[in-house]
Specification:
two-stranded antiparallel ribbon, 42% helix, Arc Repressor Mutant, subunit A
């Protein structure tokens, strides 16, 4: 799969939509693009296998998750934050308080409001942020940390 190969379209309708929308350039280049993006990000190359007539792609972390979680615990940080959650914390650090809609506008990439709501709920559960106000007018803010 890491070399030039024949592309087998399993669902031609979906392939056509992706091609027409510009999501894919041509047949048979996706696996090579995945490998290149992993190399660009300095993470291990994905592992490809064929399973029951389908293709399985396994993406590996640069280091084991347990190592990351232990290091973050020693540093006094929450176990794992997604890059978007990190971005939300930075946005809230630079603004005293924002609504979910305002947070969505500040994000670098276009993200559905529901996804941001899940991120906010996760950050609240980790006791990193909180909100005040009524249902449609909630404003989110960082929970102040005591300096040690």
């Amino acid at each position: 799969m890491k070399k030039k190969h024949v592309s087998l379209r399993r669902n031609k309708a979906i392939c056509s939509v992706f091609y027409d929308r510009g999501i894919i350039e041509s047949w048979g280049t996706g696996t090579n693009q995945m490998v290149q993006r992993c190399l660009d990000l300095e993470v291990p190359e994905p592992e490809f296998s064929e399973v029951f007539g389908g293709v399985n792609v396994k993406f590996l972390f640069k280091e084991p998750i347990i190592t990351i979680m232990k290091r973050r615990k020693v540093e006094g940080k929450p176990a794992i934050l997604s890059p978007r959650q990190e971005e939300i914390l930075t946005i809230l650090a630079n603004n005293k308080q924002l609504t979910r809609r305002e947070i969505v506008i500040h994000l670098e990439s276009l993200v559905p409001a529901r996804t941001v709501q899940r991120d906010l709920a996760g950050l609240k559960e980790m006791n990193l942020i909180d909100h005040r106000g009524q249902a449609n007018n909630l404003v989110w803010f960082l929970i102040p940390r005591k300096k040690t």
